[in-house]
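Dear colleague,

Thank you for sharing your sequence with our group. We've completed the structure prediction you requested, and as agreed, I am returning the results in plain text so they can be pasted directly into your records. Please verify that the sequence below matches your submission; if there's any discrepancy, let me know and we will rerun it promptly.
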Amino acid sequence: MEKNCPQCENHCPVEDLKCGEGRSYFGIEKGDRREARPERPEERMITLLRKCGHYLHHSVGPDADLSAMVNVLSPDERATLERLLEKCLGKWQSR
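Please find the predicted structure tokens below.
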């Protein structure tokens, strides 16, 4: 889990979020300092996809070291993730 929030320039510690964007990003209600977990597995999966997409959209610039980003996964995991993302995207776009 991230230690600092990527939602604004303050980069608050997750334990002490100051803005609504950060609380929303981490699924924390105002005044609630614990992370709210989606109840259904589908919700958790979609929440993780959204968080990954948001991070990539807002925090990865054109000069980012993409190799370092994907090196957290083994080559087999990278290939599996790529196949799964292609499958999802193909199905979603064909609707």
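Summary note from our side: The mean pLDDT is 84.

Kind regards,
the structure core
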